[in-house]
Design brief:
The complex is a heterodimer of chains A (441) and B (510).
Chain A (H helix, E strand, L loop, with lengths): L5 H8 L32 E6 L6 H4 L24 E5 L11 H9 L3 E3 L9 E3 L4 H9 L8 E4 L16 E4 L2 E3 L5 H9 L6 H22 L4 H20 L26 H17 L5 E5 L18 H7 L5 H22 L2 E2 L2 E2 L4 E6 L15 E4 L10 E4 L6 H11 L24
Parallel strand pairs in A: 1-8, 1-11, 2-13, 5-8
Antiparallel strand pairs in A: 2-12, 3-4, 6-7, 9-10, 11-12
Helix pairs in contact in A: 5-8, 6-7, 8-10
Chain B lengths: L20 E2 L2 H12 L18 H5 L6 H19 L2 H8 L8 H14 L5 H18 L2 H14 L1 H4 E2 L14 H12 L6 H8 L6 H12 L2 H14 L22 H19 L12 E4 L1 H6 L11 E4 L13 H6 L8 H12 L24 H9 L2 H14 L14 E2 L2 E2 L3 E4 L2 E4 H10 L2 H16 L8 H13 L4 H9 L2 H4 L6
Antiparallel strand pairs in B: 1-2, 3-4, 5-6, 7-8
The chains are: A alpha/beta (441), B mainly alpha (510).
Amino acid sequence: MRPLHRRTLLKGLLGGAAATVALPPLEAMLNLHGTAWADGSPLPTRFGVWFWGNGIRREHWTPDGEGRGWQPRAELAPLAPHRSHLSVITGHEIKTATHPHHSGMTGIMTGARYHQNGTTRDTIVTTFARPSVDQIAAAHYEGQTPFRSLEVAVCRFWGTDEGTTFQHLSHNGPNNVNPSEYSPRRVYERLFGMGPAAPQLDLARRSVLDAVMGQITRLKGRVGARDRIRLDQHFESIRAIEQRLGAPQAACAVGEPPAADYPDLDGREQIAEKNAAMSELVALALACDLTRAFSVMFSTAGSGVIVWPAGARNSLHQMCHDEAAPQPTVHATVVYTMERLADFLNRLKQIPEGDGNLLDHCSILCTTELSEGNVHSNDEFPILIAGKGSGRLKGDWHHRGRGKPNTSHAVLTALRAGGVPAPTFGDGPGLVGDSIGELEA
Amino acid sequence: MMPPPDVEELPDYEPAPATLYRLTRAQYQNCLRDLLGAVDVPADLEADTPLHGFASVGASELTVSPRAAEQLEAAAFAVAGQVFGDAERRQALVGCDLGEAGCVDDFLRRFGRLAWRRPLSGEEVGELSALYAELLRTLRDPWRAAEFTVATVLQSPWFVFRVERGEGAEGQRRYSDVEMASRLSFLIWNSAPDDALLAAGERGELATPAGLETQARRLLADDRAREAMRHFFGEFFLLDRLDGLTKDRDVFPQMSPTLGAAMRREVEAMIDDVVFGRDADLRSLLTTRDTFLDAELAALYGLPPVEGPGHQPVHLPPDNPRGGLLGTAGILALNAHNTVTSPTLRGKFIQNTLLCFDIPPPPPGIPQLSDSEDGPETTRQKLERHRSDPSCNGCHQFMDPLGVSLENFDAIGAFRTTEAGLAIDARAVFEGQTFEGPRQLGELLREREEIGACFARRFFRHGMGHLESEAEERAVRDLIDAFRASDHRFQALVVALVTSDAFRLVGEDE
């Protein structure tokens, strides 16, 4: 944990009261010039993933023109207001593609092949062989914020029988997942709900957690190698709680909690409303420096969400296969999805930070698990990087790869823009050591 | 899609290695209720991640994420707070005066044994007792110290995971009698063993098939078994998806927020009737004319209103086209799209779920489907056009011909005779047999040997908590044989599994 934030001082000034005071986030914690923390350390850079399932329609996605002179087509038009903060990457290909959806998901998120979970049935069940990119960033930022990472999801459709690849985005390794929270209220309660506890209660909680960690350690000595890895994660998970004990509360304007529930209205999922609430919470978590690594899973790989506001009457995955060319509803769904992304980016931009805004200090990999859902393609992969990575990215640029370069170059670019000094990204045919220099400032 | 090898070609049997099982969400809730009585377990718990169709398989692979650890901590304090916030309940739980010598250790020994599903060692009691003393110094209140100690026991890996390691010499390891108590109760009750079962294990009574059968029969007679098996079949058929069933309200005015749950309840009640109500041949699930309907479902089925609240037993009249599992609105609606049916999904359900015939996922580079230029067509006609492409027909030939026999039931499972103004043709031919509708389909499937084998195979996977390995295939075949020999009684299948070597032996660690 950062030894002393200005936030700590702020809490002291307020006499330890629940710190939901109406301040512009962070402003009070900055130095006089607003360019760094009060203690002189630089403003943080954050890394995130914004993911949606089932790809795009190429003819509406790929921009006209390259470099700074790019012009969005219909599917990127909703993001035009954020073009100064947008790097568009086209022409790249997943180099570890073997299996629709699965290899795209693991290929983009890990730069590697999936790990197949058991081999005796034909229907494929997979998990990630390596940590997902958000967790590579989380490992780099670890210890500087109360939460190592934050995972949220919007559309509720959840695949059930093709392994963790279809159910979760964030992975620490094979079947070691960070499940996304689907309820905005629970995200709110997790981040902001803990009022300050009496010191002796924190002390007692610490005794409890220490005892549990001791039990985990002793049990580790009695189990096989595979289970030891699982218990290591259990131990780390408990340790993360213990490290937060006594840490300062968030000192931001957090506003009213979101609705407890977003029930379907006339059988229709409230997608935009949930997305808005989650977007606001992620923006606040970043502004308050509660975490620096996050993922928003708007919809899962191969999602069966019914995007009714885009005119869809059936599940997206089914429509990708069944709607006749040129798939106007699938296209409308992609436009709608990019509008939701624009909403999220807008909320980041609305929060002033330093001499700019929060989005300036983010690098957000925005992508999906395949290029086009109807043909399950893995080339011409849709990739955006939103944010300026604290000045590491030019923004407002369309980089078009020639000769089908590896998608991992784009992911490594996003990761490095998040301030993560990763020498490489990926494994096997997905491995790269070079980011895309043309996008970097 | 290779046919299963003959028994003679199978490798020698080897038991699976031991693994930690994280409690599933339902097991965690059930354990807390069995341990503490009526407690309100917070709903803010991680959802299960099913693998290979079952949460029990996911539970043998997954661990405790940072978020899950937070949720488990909050839940442990919430339930402990409920018990210790009530003077009578906490006194009943602790059972002695905390200030008296020996009370704390005595309580921890009793409570720890039920919570961790095994007797605690003296050292473990000593450690928890020292923790209690430390907490007492911090909190200065014996009840609060006991409350926090209970919250510790409930967050322990010994509670959150099932730890079953086995004992004995290398190559001959088997689960201990006390571990067998857990294996039995988590399979049959989806919860921890009760005092009687643990005591039977401690007395060495679970070392023999006869001892195991005695306890298994006792557990099966308890309502917790019905709940646990409801859970198993729910996962098997993905019935929980019915609770949030989404169907287009413009196309289906009958669709309501409660209809999906009513469909689920029908399927569950039909299964419960076959398995527990009558202990009948499980295959009769495909042909039974005894079902359970509420007012909403009776209306959907075009039957007279049921008398009484909730779901009531209904014997389908002879002229009713429904019958068996495949005639329930729940199965028909689950395996359909939002506005239209899917003979492919229904066929896949039959092949994949009921017959254990795996169908590969669609290949990369799927050809684009187009609408017909010759005016309206039925779903069946559209699919037949699709299958004229050989790359599609390779797999669709296994699914669509079975699914089209159910085309007289729309995407919410209501009966219909036309689609898009065209008469529906639900005649189907599968492997040389001509048939039509769920009743004939059920009769046809019931005679297939794969049906019984598939139930046994999936129950093995669920019960063992892992994907069956090649080295276990002989044990799977033995279970299939035992199930057949019992005339496909599901309760007999349960007993056959828990008394089998596969359930009792432990392989070496990987």
